[in-house]
Amino acid sequence: MNTKISSQYVTIQGTKIHYLAAGATTAKTVLFLHGASFNAKTWQEIGSLQLLAQKGYRGIAVDLPGYGSSERLSGSNKDFLLELINSLDLNLPILVSPSMSGNYSLPLIANHAEQLSGFVPIAPVGILKFEEQLKGVQLPTLAIWGSNDRLIPVAQADLLLKLMPNAQKVVLENAGHACYMRATDAFHEHLLKFVTLL
After folding, report:
1. 63 part of the active site
2. DSSP 72
């Protein structure tokens, strides 16, 4: 089944930001960020956007500033995600945030968790930096890690579970830091199960 994926732009802080979208605009939305070696297209290449659309959800994958087809921000990254969510008129999306994108997602979770219905951190950077602000955040969270992650140890997933009362953890066996690339089927299975519950 061919799923239509559209390539679009939105202007944030005077900067053109590129994103890919699939699925009905009225459907529950999953917003994908990406790691430093990747971009929005990654989520198309591994089939995440198509899968969500086929299951009745909307998938949006953004090229973070300075990556893929997005321009660099001239100002601060601090409110970028909040502005993106508002500009795209997303109603309580579920945020998927691997690796480097923790620099964007964790400040949002710490200060504006009420803007989301769920959070799927995939070994994000910055947990230790935001430890105090994340304490007690009630947002439903599914922390996904690769068992062989040498960059961000699985112990940081356990720390998230301690900090956030509604967090749970899934470890994908024989997968490294970009575990969703190596164990894609298992990643999709856990993601869909989580999205369905929200």
Report:
1. no
2. P
How remote is the C-alpha of 26 from its chain's centroid?
19
H or E element in which residue 58 lies: strand 58-62
Bridge partner residues of 9 (DSSP): 18
Instruction: Encode pLDDT of 55-97 as tens digits.
Output: 999 999 999 999 999 999 987 787 999 999 999 999 999 999 9
Respond yes or no: is residue 177 known to be catalytic: yes
List 48, 70, 97, 99, catalytic entry = 99
pLDDT tens-digit profile of 133-152?
A: 999 999 999 999 999 999 99
Question: pTM (2 decimals)?
Answer: 0.97
What are the structural domains, with CATH classification, of the chain?
Answer: 5-197 (3.40.50.1820)
Take residue 68 and report the two structure tokens written for it: 């893929």
Size of the chain, expressed as the number of residues it contains: 198
What is the overall mean pLDDT for the chain? 96
Q: What angle do CA 8, 12, 16 make, to 5 degrees?
A: 45
Residue 112 a catalytic site member: no
State in Å, rounded, how far the first CA of the chain is from the last one.
26
